[in-house]
Design brief:
With 408 residues, the protein is mainly α. It has two domains: 16-199, Growth Hormone, Chain: A, CATH 1.20.1250; 204-392, MFS general substrate transporter like domains (Growth Hormone, Chain: A, Up-down Bundle), CATH 1.20.1250.20. 83% of the residues lie in helices and 0% in strands. The protein has 18 helices and no strands. The chain has helices at 2-9, 14-43, 46-74, 76-100, 104-117, 121-132, 136-167, 170-190, 192-196, 213-243, 247-269, 276-293, 300-311, 314-328, 334-361, 366-386, 388-391, 397-407. α1 packs across α7 (136-167), α4 packs antiparallel against α5 and α11 (247-269) packs parallel to α13 (300-311). The longest helix is centred in the middle third of the chain and has 32 residues, at 136-167. The chain starts with a helix and ends with a helix. 51% of the residues are buried.
């Protein structure tokens, strides 16, 4: 395992790209929590905070594929720089509105503009790995680290926002996120690999990556995986409510995240002989089994312990999805394809929240909700199995030549 990550680290631009990835993506995960705290402080309403947060999330999910298409069309540096400038103005407008006339409508509008203008750093970085690293095994390790950066951002972002908000106020937390995001994105877009990234000749027509059946399969899997997480978060909260211990949900989520980190480390370090499409089915099946076991947790220690193997399959699923998107995306649409993956995950999480809310209203126990979450992984495995041929690797010229020789 150490050798795999050593080989990755020896690539010239890898340390810079990973570091800048942290700077550009931790605030991306943190700012939403900061906006919620800021809205509650300025309006005194949790309902208003929900509206403002939802406006930003929906706008981001809708805007990121558009940004991805612009990157594929005009290159990374120009597209990211323009988006960053607009995003900085949007953050300034949000903070001004919050401290002048904190009306829900105005805050929601500015939050939507912030979400709509967020630069697609994650999608751009994933598209860049294929040019920076030619070796497929090392590139898989890079994608594993990329997925783990996201896990770290999900954990560290809210913690940092909480600390800054407690000491200086949520306005400073939101402003800090904006400043770090601005600096990190400009740093990323100024790196030589990003500046040298040249858009390929675009294929796929107006539909872009959505014209690829394989991409549709992967987006369907992303929606279902996002729904699993949406239900799981509510199920953890329900378990905490049943035990009258609010800390239980956070502990279980942290254990789930730790399992994901371990899974990503293991997956990224191993050479794999099987095809990515086959691996995805196996990973999803393991994911379904791991999450289903949570339903059998008799107490809090068991729930936290079982959350580690349940989360083990999350990062490998994300990495495998990255690999397959790179394979299935039509030429010239790679960044947009990765961006659509983000949108699909957001949409799936919203679906999971709706399902979980319906289950709570129906009086469902946490065990049933865990089983329902596992059902989404099982359904995703079925989708991946049905789409096996669509996810299969296209034959290389060398393969074609060998087949011709055998036929003759």
């Amino acid at each position: 395992m150490r050798e795999a990550y050593r080989r990755l680290w020896r690539h010239r631009w890898v340390p810079s790209l990973l570091l800048v990835g942290v700077c550009a993506r931790v605030p991306l995960q943190a700012y939403t929590f900061g906006v919620l705290l800021l809205t509650v402080e300025r309006t005194g309403s949790y309902a208003a905070a929900g509206v403002v947060g939802a406006a930003g999330g929906i706008a981001y999910a809708a805007g990121v594929p558009v940004h991805g298409r612009l990157v594929d069309r005009f290159g990374q540096t120009r597209s990211l720089t323009v988006a960053t400038a607009i995003n900085a103005v949007a953050f300034a407008g949000l903070l001004t509105a919050a401290y002048s006339q904190p009306a829900t409508g105005a805050l929601a509008a500015w939050s939507a503009i912030v979400g709509l203008s967020l630069p697609p750093v994650a999608a751009a970085a994933r598209a860049l790995w294929s040019q920076v690293i030619g070796d497929e095994e090392i590139r898989r390790t890079a994608l594993a680290v990329d997925a783990m950066v996201l896990d770290v951002a999900l954990i560290a972002g809210p913690l940092l926002v909480s600390a800054v908000s407690a000491t200086a106020g949520p306005g400073w937390a939101v402003g800090g996120c904006a400043a770090v995001l601005l600096g990190g994105t400009l740093w990323f877009s100024s790196l030589p690999p990003s500046r040298a990234w040249a858009p390929a000749r675009r294929t796929g027509g107006l539909a872009g990556p959505l014209r690829s059946p394989g991409i549709i399969v992967l987006l369907s899997v992303s929606v279902l995986a996002g729904a699993l997480l949406g239900v799981l978060r509510v199920a953890f909260a329900g378990y905490a409510d049943r035990t009258a211990d609010p800390a239980v949900g956070g502990l279980a989520l942290a254990a789930f995240g730790a399992g994901s980190l371990i899974g990503g480390l293991v997956y990224g370090a191993r050479p794999w002989r099987s095809d990515s499409g086959v691996r995805m089915r196996v990973i999803l099946a393991g994911y379904a089994c791991g999450v289903a076991l949570l339903a059998a947790a008799p107490n809090v220690p068991a729930l936290v312990t079982l959350s580690v193997p349940a989360g083990f399959f999350l990062a490998p699923l994300v990495i495998c999805n990255f690999e397959l998107i790179g394979r299935c995306a039509p030429e010239g649409t790679l960044t947009e394809a990765f961006a659509w993956g983000i949108t699909a995950t957001f949409a799936g999480s919203a679906l999971g929240n709706l399902v979980a809310a319906a289950l709570v209203d129906a009086g469902a126990e946490p065990a049933f909700m865990f089983a329902s979450a596992a059902g989404f992984a099982a359904l995703a495995a079925a989708v991946a199995a049905l789409g096996t041929r669509l996810l299969a690797a296209a034959p290389t010229p060398a393969d074609t030549d060998r087949s011709a020789e055998k036929g003759s």
